[in-house]
Amino acid sequence: MTEHRLDQPDRPWMIRTYAGHSTAEKSNELYRGNLEKGQTGLSIAFDLPTQTGYDPGDELARGEVGKVGVPVSNIRDMEALLDGIPLDRMNTSMTINATAAWLLALYIVTAEHQGASEDQLQGTTQNDIIKEFLARGTYAFPPAPSMRLIADMIAYTVENVPKWNPINICSYHLQEAGATPVQEIAYSMSNAIAVLDAVRDRVDPSVMPQVFARISFFVNAGLRFIEEHAKLRAMGILWDELGRERYGVEDPKLRRFRYGVQVNSLGLTERQPENNIQRIVLETLAVTLGRDARARAIQLPAWNEALGLPRPWDQQWSLRIQQVMAYETDLLDYPDIFEGSKVMDGLVEELLEGARAEMAVVAEQGGAVEAVPYMKAQLVESHRERLRRIETGDQVVVGLNRYQESEESPLTADAEGGILVVDPAVEAQQTAAVAAWREQRDQTAVDEALAEVARVALSEDENIMPATIAAARAGVTTGEWSAALRGAFGEYRAPTGVGESASADHDDAELEALRDEVDRVSEALGRRIRILVGKPGLDGHSNGAEQIAVRARDAGMDVVYEGIRLTPSQIAASAKQEGVHVIGLSILSGSHRELIPSVIEALNQAGAGDVPLVVGGIIPDQDVPELEAAGVAAVYTPKDYDLTRIIREIVALVAERGGVAQSA
Amino acid sequence: MTPNAGAELGGRLAAGDLSAAPDALNLLESSAAADQPERVSLLAATSPAALGHEPAGHVVGITGPPGVGKSTLISALCKALREQGRTVAVVAVDPSSKRSGGALLGDRARISFDPADDGLLIRSMAAGDRLGGLARPTRDAAAALSAAYDVVVVETVGVGQSETEVAEVADTVCVVVQPGSGDTLQFIKSGIMEIPDVLVVTKSDLGVIAQRARRDLNSALRSLGARDTKVVAVSALPPASGISELLAAVEAHHASCDLAAERSSRRRSQALAEFGELFGRRGLDALGGRRAALKTVAELDSGLDVPGLVAALVVSAKLN
After folding, report:
1. Does residue B123 sit at the A interface (CB-CB below 8 Å)?
2. What residues have CB less than 8 Å from A296, skipping those under 6 apart?
3. In Å, how far are A93, A126, A254, A473 from A479, measured between CA atoms?
4. Smallest Cβ distance to A503: which of B99, B106, B121?
5. Do A515 and A457 belong together in one domain?
6. N or C end of chain B: smaller count of CB under 10 Å?
């Protein structure tokens, strides 16, 4: 035996693909195909209505059904989704948060119908609400009851579904929202503390070590893969410390830092999208290179994520990347290759120091729940800095701000531009299917089950899971379960972080000139240019909208920032009430073809049809003519990275519509 | 603006037509020279002189430091008021950036509203480059909207000065503080901050800390002899608590004050301030100095709106 080789190569990590779209049946077909291709676990992507607790047919679900994932509205959908997949042996990750208790209940009842018992079930519910408030936006309930639901699920699974990971503390989405490595570590660790403290109030102290051991993480890995690897080692050290010191976990095995990963999507480009493949490969090194901080499960984005939804072939390509790394290379043959590395140890030390300081700031504010506004503002600020570096060229992005010249890409040459287009008929079909489901079920049993869910929700210390599982059996729908809890808990709108964002510290000449123009046009109009910025639909990825809002303010505009999850009629009412000169909407979920025409119709009805509308987000080229024909004044996509130019064009649009002459 | 737009919009507001509010606010915010006569007629049409009585709407000022939970509180207040069937207009003022002149108006994102509900208006306003005090459009908006809405909420941000500013327009001033923030207590004790009509302690779900904050504020107020100021603890996050107590405290203050006298006194001092801004020392001298000016303005019709009072002062001073 030698010190530099393992006796036996390690087993590969769990190989997954984040997938789901259109309907349960279509997604089932996709899962079976992926498993045949050698995928070793499932990763379910739910659509936004399922994630936020609305049924197809709800006004807020419009345009979103089956888009970024699969719609699951009741037990029949869940059974169709997992048909022919043996749940006693499968390891399933579900990206579900606000409605996690509900989807876990559907999963448990599906397994029950297959003959599998709760203690056989393996998998993960994402179930991390703090990062939804900070970065992803699919929350449904206020912070306190949301934390209670998480604590209930952990308490329930530790006892009844012991192999289940009831929560994945997510640093992934923080990086997508602009977090630095230090922020990613500090905020996710603070988040874990808030969760563990909440559970501690609801379980017997003797089970806390088991609770601690069931907490896993979902992290991100960016292109600076050496530093990113150091980040994971630092997280492992902090986690071990936390277990020992704060929660008194004696057994080192129970203190092991376990994480799954999806590598970075924020850095993937719409221009020369083939380059994304090498980005994904390099990012994967960050989470596989060093044995002491290697991922337990990996899923990779597809090369075309900045363009639209990936097709099965695109996802297969990412699956094959993992398989080449796991089965063709010698990655798994050695002990930790960074042991004793001065560079690695130094990087880890730096990150630990930064993270501890930032964790102290969060703790001072009363912990992660109370510090949501602070952390949110910090993320907006970090993302602003990141964009500034890309704009100025301080940060090179090949194909975007450097080496832009390119041959025509054959990858995007097909009629649909190299992406998946969900059949627009899916929404109507699913709406009809939910209606039919309601017709055939025992309504009395449903009413009783919902009343019980509401009763338990309002109780002080009863666990929500048994009533939720009973509701799944009784035929309750996702929207009904969520409505019962919304009734009990109330609704909530999370802080936006934009108000606290500092104004530009780099007064470049371009921005100065733009301010002069904003002043000139504002004077001619009689009022400072006002823009309404917000996000229609259920997509909560708000960082694009936030950055536009901050830059518009820095250019001298008055910005009414309305946040996420807006219906077309809300946008129209706001535009009218606020007397804005222009509206900017951001959509990343692919629902623009349904939502934008509805917004325009609502604006006309509200008497604000003359207010120009610009749209930004992941909008495929081929959809642009249709949007423009519907009355959209301009469309911006990820390739438009120069925010100042976008604002300049918006000012010109306002001037033109307001009859303000061009400056001499 | 079309001719007579100001009078028309003002007339509609006076008649309780809430759909006139957005356009009326656009006009009140306008600094274009061509819009000024219309702006003046709009205000005249909603003035006590035109209505024959003080506008019935209760103007409630809500102020406090950033991050204290004002928008969430206002969201809960609006919901409670709408449930009582009362119409509400919220004017949410946020600071403007000194550097760019622009402003991020983020309150709307935190206030829940039903777009089908015509009885709730939310309007964000930038504070602009004011020289102390509220920007003119905010004052005008409060005056005009109070002719149409049952309750007008004016929200401002800050510590130490903002309550003085919002008192320029509000019949009832509420200062919002969160438990554990000693600043407000210090400001009150040292006299930097004027004593508000109602003090609201948010985040009462924090329990002991909130109770202690409430007690400390009460004892500070008592030591200053301010026995009438109510301290209310609320939790605006659903399930909200303390909202009906807050509404009751606001109502009680409203019932106890001499509205007509206070409002006309506010209008007079604003008019004098605006006159001073426009004509400076020379203008005041033309009225016979500051004391004489105060006397002159006090003799003018108490139902005149601010532009009306300024115009009357100009006539008295023989400046035009």
Report:
1. yes
2. A13, A14, A216, A258, A259, A260
3. 22, 19, 37, 15
4. B99
5. no
6. C
What is the helix (H) or strand (E) element at residue B73, kind and residue range? helix B70-83
Using one digit for the tens of pLDDT, what is the confidence trace for A121-134?
A: 999 999 999 999 99
Query: Is the pLDDT score of B239 beyond 80?
Result: no
pLDDT tens track for A225-254: 999 999 999 999 999 999 999 999 999 999
Q: Could you say which residues from 144 to 163 on chain A have a Cβ atom under 8 Å away from some Cβ of chain B?
A: 144
* Per-residue burial over B219-228, b = 16 or more CB atoms within 10 Å of its CB, e = otherwise: ebbeeeeeee
- A327 is known as an active-site residue: no
Closest CA to B157 of B92, B90, B238, B103: B92
Name the residue type at position A197.
D
In this predicted complex, what is the ipTM? 0.94
Q: Which two tokens stand for residue A350?
A: 């730096």
Give the count of domains, chain A. 3
Tokens linked to A223: 């292109």
Structural domain containing residue A65 = 14-412
Q: Looking at domain B55-257, does it have CATH number 3.40.50.300?
A: yes
Report the alpha-carbon distance of residue A304 to residue A275 in Å, rounded.
10
Which of A26, A67, A131, A173 is catalytic? The answer is A173
Retrieve residue B233's tokens. Answer: 């603890």
Q: Are A305 and A283 in contact (CB under 8 A)?
A: no
Check whether residue A153 and residue A247 sit in a common domain. yes
Same-domain status, A240 and A307 = yes
Query: Which strand (E) or helix (H) includes residue B262?
Result: helix B259-286
Alpha-carbon distance of B108 to B95, in angstroms, equals 15
Q: Tell whether A342 and A460 lie within a shared domain.
A: no
Nearest-angstrom CA–CA distance, A461 and A480: 22
